[in-house]
Amino acid sequence: MQLLSAYLKNHDTDNELVELIDILMVACKEIALQLREGALAGIHGTTSDTNVQGETQKKLDVISNDILKEVLLDNRLVRGVASEEEDEPVFGNPEGRFLVTFDPLDGSSNIDVNVSVGTIFSILEVPETGTPDSVDLFLQPGRKQVAAGYVLYGPSAVLALTTGHGVNMFTLAHTGDFLLTREQVSVPETTKEFAINMSNQRHWEPAMRNYVDDLLAGAEGPRGKNYNMRWIASMVAEVHRVLTRGGIFTYPWDSRDPKKPGKLRLMYEGNPMSMLIEQAGGLSTTCYQNIMDIQPAHIHQRVAVALGSREEVETAMQYHQDTP
Ligand code: AHG
Ligand code: MN
Ligand code: MN
Ligand code: MN
C-alpha cells in the first residue's frame, strides 16, 4: 500500500504542495487522537463562546481550530489561514506561497453523541507576491483551488483528497501513516438516495419543495423510482457517502434568514466539497450556478448547496429553471 506523500510525489504533485498536505495531516492526526479519547480527554461539551457564524462553539471546534492554526502557521509555506471559527484570517510567513481555509470540525453537533465528524480544507495560492496581508487574498473563486479535501473521523479516519487530478482516499493506519485505499473515485451518475434536512421544508423555495415532493412520491410519481433518504447532519459524512455510492446531498436556500443564501459556508465547505465532487465526475451547484464559479465577496459567505450524482443534480437544477 502506498503512503500519502509517496503517492503524491509519484503523481507529479509539486513538492511544496506535498509538504503542505503532510503538515495538514499532522494536525488532522492530532484531532483524530483527541476525538478517540472523547469523554476521557474532557473534550465533550460546549464553551461559553459564540463564533462569527452565530453558533455556540463546542470545545472541540476550538481545540481543532487551535491545532490546525498552530501547525499551519508554523510552516514557512503558509501565508495565512481562514477558518469558520475565526473572525478574520490569521497570517503567517509573509513569503508563504499558500493560503489554507478550513472547517476545523464539521458536524460538531454530532461530537457529544459520538457520530462521525470531519475536517474540511481548501488550499489556494497567494495570487501575487508583494500584496499586503488582507482578507482579499482569500477571496478567490473555487476554480482557483490547488487542492481540497477532508478527513472523516468515522469508524476509521479517511482522507479524501484532490489536487486537480481526480479524487483519492487514504486511510489512517495504526502506524500513523495515511495509506492509499481508493484510487480515482467516481460518483455514479444516477442515484436513488437523497439527503436533506426535511424539517426545513416549509422554508424552502417552491422549486425545492416540488423537487423533494416528487422524490417522495416514489415509483408512482413523475420520477418513477423509489428513493431512500439519509441525514447525518455532518456534511463531511454525507459527502463521503455520495463519493462512495452516489446520491444527492443538499442544504438549499431557505427563508429563515434572507441575508444568508443557505447555511453552509462557501470558503470552508462549499468550495472544497465542490472540487472533490467535480473531480469525481459529479456536479455541485446552488441549483442555479456552479458553486466554484462564484466570486466570493466575504470570507464567511454562505451558499446554497446541491451536490452529487450528475443526473440527479441536473434534475434538481431543472426544477429551479422550470418553477418561477
Ligand atoms: P458545522 O458543524 O461545521 O457548523 O457544520 C454543520 C453543517 C453541516 O455539516 C451539516 O450538513 C449541517 O450543518 C447540518 O445542519 P442542520 O443541523 O441544520 O441539519
Ligand atoms: Mn459550526
Ligand atoms: Mn461544517
Ligand atoms: Mn465546523
Automatic annotation (TrEMBL):
<keyword id="KW-0119">Carbohydrate metabolism</keyword>
<feature type="binding site">
    <location>
        <begin position="106"/>
        <end position="109"/>
    </location>
    <ligand>
        <name>substrate</name>
    </ligand>
</feature>
<dbReference type="Pfam" id="PF18913">
    <property type="entry name" value="FBPase_C"/>
</dbReference>
<feature type="binding site">
    <location>
        <position position="197"/>
    </location>
    <ligand>
        <name>substrate</name>
    </ligand>
</feature>
<dbReference type="GO" id="GO:0000287">
    <property type="term" value="F:magnesium ion binding"/>
</dbReference>
<dbReference type="InterPro" id="IPR044015">
    <property type="entry name" value="FBPase_C_dom"/>
</dbReference>
<dbReference type="InterPro" id="IPR028343">
    <property type="entry name" value="FBPtase"/>
</dbReference>
<feature type="domain" description="Fructose-1-6-bisphosphatase class 1 C-terminal">
    <location>
        <begin position="187"/>
        <end position="320"/>
    </location>
</feature>
<feature type="binding site">
    <location>
        <position position="103"/>
    </location>
    <ligand>
        <name>Mg(2+) 1</name>
    </ligand>
</feature>
<comment type="pathway">
    <text>Carbohydrate biosynthesis.</text>
</comment>
<keyword id="KW-0378">Hydrolase</keyword>
<dbReference type="GO" id="GO:0005829">
    <property type="term" value="C:cytosol"/>
</dbReference>
<dbReference type="GO" id="GO:0005986">
    <property type="term" value="P:sucrose biosynthetic process"/>
</dbReference>
<feature type="binding site">
    <location>
        <position position="106"/>
    </location>
    <ligand>
        <name>Mg(2+) 2</name>
    </ligand>
</feature>
<dbReference type="GO" id="GO:0030388">
    <property type="term" value="P:fructose 1,6-bisphosphate metabolic process"/>
</dbReference>
<keyword id="KW-0963">Cytoplasm</keyword>
<feature type="binding site">
    <location>
        <position position="103"/>
    </location>
    <ligand>
        <name>Mg(2+) 2</name>
    </ligand>
</feature>
<feature type="domain" description="Fructose-1-6-bisphosphatase class I N-terminal">
    <location>
        <begin position="9"/>
        <end position="183"/>
    </location>
</feature>
<dbReference type="GO" id="GO:0006000">
    <property type="term" value="P:fructose metabolic process"/>
</dbReference>
<dbReference type="Pfam" id="PF00316">
    <property type="entry name" value="FBPase"/>
</dbReference>
<dbReference type="GO" id="GO:0042132">
    <property type="term" value="F:fructose 1,6-bisphosphate 1-phosphatase activity"/>
</dbReference>
<feature type="binding site">
    <location>
        <position position="263"/>
    </location>
    <ligand>
        <name>substrate</name>
    </ligand>
</feature>
<keyword id="KW-0460">Magnesium</keyword>
<keyword id="KW-0479">Metal-binding</keyword>
<feature type="binding site">
    <location>
        <position position="84"/>
    </location>
    <ligand>
        <name>Mg(2+) 1</name>
    </ligand>
</feature>
<protein>
    <recommendedName>
        <fullName>Fructose-1,6-bisphosphatase class 1</fullName>
        <ecNumber>3.1.3.11</ecNumber>
    </recommendedName>
</protein>
<dbReference type="GO" id="GO:0006094">
    <property type="term" value="P:gluconeogenesis"/>
</dbReference>
<dbReference type="GO" id="GO:0006002">
    <property type="term" value="P:fructose 6-phosphate metabolic process"/>
</dbReference>
<feature type="binding site">
    <location>
        <position position="269"/>
    </location>
    <ligand>
        <name>Mg(2+) 2</name>
    </ligand>
</feature>
<dbReference type="InterPro" id="IPR000146">
    <property type="entry name" value="FBPase_class-1"/>
</dbReference>
<comment type="similarity">
    <text>Belongs to the FBPase class 1 family.</text>
</comment>
<feature type="binding site">
    <location>
        <position position="105"/>
    </location>
    <ligand>
        <name>Mg(2+) 1</name>
    </ligand>
</feature>
<dbReference type="InterPro" id="IPR033391">
    <property type="entry name" value="FBPase_N"/>
</dbReference>
<comment type="subunit">
    <text>Homotetramer.</text>
</comment>
